[in-house]
Amino acid sequence: MTALGDRIRELRRTKGLTQKQLADLIGAKHNSISDWEKNKNKPDSNTITLLMKALDVDANSLLGWDNIQNMKSDAKELAAAILNNPKINNMLSLLIDMTDEDLSLVTSFIERLNKNKS
């Protein structure tokens, strides 16, 4: 299956954009585009939306979910990453019995932590 970074590179080139041009279109740093295309990092969900607009594709095409095999492969990868990470397993066990209100608070907190990293 083609990695997200490879799809970003392919779609960017199809549109005739340089990494800098794409970065300017979505308000990202040039090195972010490079890191995504090298599959070092992945864009966050807000950036995925910006990439879809800039590259003129839907989420399924950008994420490689335009066919069932890619979706199954991504789901297996994600499940393996979750199951093989003790920290995530521990966190999930803590979250499972939380109320919707508490889950919303935890989600907001995590989103703020991620924004502080940018």
From TrEMBL:
Highest taxon listed in the record's lineage: Bacteria
The keyword RNA-binding appears for this protein: no
Pfam families recorded: HTH_3
GO terms for MF: DNA binding
Entries under SMART domains matching the protein: HTH_XRE
Segments forming domain HTH cro/C1-type: 8-62
InterPro entries, per the entry: Cro/C1-type_HTH (IPR001387), Lambda_DNA-bd_dom_sf (IPR010982)
PROSITE patterns (alphabetical): HTH_CROC1 (PS50943)
Keyword DNA-binding attached: yes
Record keywords, A-Z: DNA-binding
Protein name as catalogued: Helix-turn-helix protein
